[in-house]
Amino acid sequence: MMAAKKDIQVLIGGKVYTLSGYESEEYLQKIALYINNKMEEMDQIPNYRRMSMDMQKTLLELNMADDYHKAKKQVDMLEADIEEKDKTEYDLKHELIGAQIHLEEAEKEIERLKNEINDLQKQIVKLETRAYQKQ
To answer: The pTM is what?
Structure first.
């Protein structure tokens, strides 16, 4: 079932805008807050207020695009890092399974050798008994 479309009022740059969409009100208010904070940040740039509205708008857009691309680069780096860690984890699990198989084989060989030693010790006892009886 698809979420219902909502009309939400937000305040951007001192003006009320009605946004229509499927996002939550909290999300859309966060977006409006981000834009307002960006506008306030731009107002701190010397001579910004003296620029034409087109130039102000372009600088604001450039600044927001810069934020977006920096955040995207960070996300891409984090995803690559996760991918590398997943690969390392897979390799380590594969090595662990190999080591467990090797350990099981070594334990079986130890058990076989113990049985062989036991059999040889029995043979020694028999041979010693025969040698003792012949004396």
So the answer is: 0.62
